[in-house]
Each structure stands twice: as structure tokens, then as C-alpha cells.
């Protein structure tokens, strides 16, 4: 089972659809927190540890329909378990602040709201794999689906299995993220990601400094 050592660092995740600006904002957030004297580790999902990056390869490449939603969920959670136990939890215990580009809410949005796997089943898998482990703060970058896909396509760097799923799927997962935020308002905040990157960052920084007392 997972250890319950008290953690000293904070665990922040950024969520949202393809091209919403997660990676852009995480880099800015890392710089801002580092300037304030925090020890910061940025990481990503799927992946973030050696084993999880190998599983990532199976998830972000290849045929759109290669996995059914349950298999896909289990692959994400196998990767997530490795990522949490090998990278995230040890860093938090040392006092490092960890910022992850996607985490468990992406599985709920993509495989649950997007692909229709029962949400209670996904919550059950979460509990089984991670127990009480949770984010301190999850920021959801909300952006018009087509605009996000346009931004993401302009990068064209491969690993595009999810980007290639149809527009209805992407619309469902946008609504899914908003629903997650409505049901977990203490843990989540939604930011309008449609403005320029500086404006989005100002909104992100407001949330970080309002919600996390150390900042
Ligand atoms: N606020 C913004 N306005 C316009 N373009 C942006 C903005 N933020 C990021 N971009 C650009 O949009 C593209 C996607 O941004 P980014 O990679 O940060 O998104 P992402 O959410 O990490 O995407 P993915 O889910 O595909 O990893 C990049 O080319 C980035 O430079
Ligand atoms: Mg990204």
C-alpha cells in the first residue's frame, strides 16, 4: 500500500483539453514559484517516471481505437501509480512543490465523460490505486474546443492519438472538466484560457496566491 508520510510540498495540477495552454502556463508557474524561493518540480502525464513514460508511448501513439475505455483507464492508472510512488510522493515529502501537466482528472474527463466509462468505476480505481492521495489544487484551463485543437495542431509534434479523436469527443471532455470543477470546488479552479498567455498567467497566479497560503 501507499505510505502516509506527511507531505511538506504542494501538489498542483493543470488540466484542460488539447492545446489549452497547460505546458505554456506550467513553465511560467515554475519560474514564478522558483523566484519566490520554492523548490519546484514539473512533470507530466501520462508519463513522468521511467516506467510511466514507457506506458505513455502506448497511449499517445497509434490507432485511435486501439484500446477500449477500461483498458485505457487501467493503462493510465498503472502509469500514474508508478509516477506517484517513484517521483511525486518522494518529492513532496522532501518539501518540493510538484506541478503536473495533467493528472487523474484527465482520466475522468477523457475515459469517463469522453468515452463513457462509468464515473464511479473510475473513482473506484482511483481509490484502489492512490487511496487518499490527492492534489492540493487543480487548475482547469477552459478553452473553446476548436480553438484548442487549432493551437495544438500548429505544434505538430506527433503523439497525437487523442488529438485525432473526433470533435464531439473533445466537446464532451471540455464539459467533463467543467463538471469536475463544479463537483470539487475546494480542490479545483477554472480559468478562461482564451486570452493571450500573459493574461491567462495573471489569472493563474491569482488562483495560486489566493488558494495556497504559503505563496
Ligand atoms: N494564451 C494563448 N494564446 C494563444 N496561443 C497560445 C496560448 N497559450 C499557448 N499558446 C500556443 O498554443 C499551442 C498549445 O499550447 P500548449 O502546448 O501550452 O498547450 P497544451 O495544453 O500543453 O497542449 P497539449 O494538450 O496538446 O499538450 C502552443 O503553440 C502555444 O505556444
Ligand atoms: Mg502540453
The total tally of domains equals: 1
Overall mean pLDDT stands at 95
Sketch the topology as an H/E string, one letter per element: EHEHHEHHEHHEH
Fourth CATH level, the homologous superfamily: P-loop containing nucleotide triphosphate hydrolases
Report the portion of residues in β strands.
5-15%
Determine and state the CATH class. Answer: Alpha Beta
Q: Record the strand order, biggest sheet.
A: 2-3-1-4-5
Largest sheet: 5 strands, parallel
Broad shape: globular
Q: How would you portray this structure in words?
A:
The protein has 215 residues and is α/β, with parallel strands linked by helices. It has one domain: P-loop containing nucleotide triphosphate hydrolases (Rossmann fold), CATH 3.40.50. The protein is built from eight helices and five strands, in the order βαβααβααβααβα. A five-stranded parallel β-sheet has the order 2-3-1-4-5, sandwiched between helices. Helix 1 crosses helix 8, helix 4 packs antiparallel against helix 5 and helix 4 crosses helix 7. The protein is globular and about 45 Å long. The mean pLDDT is 95.
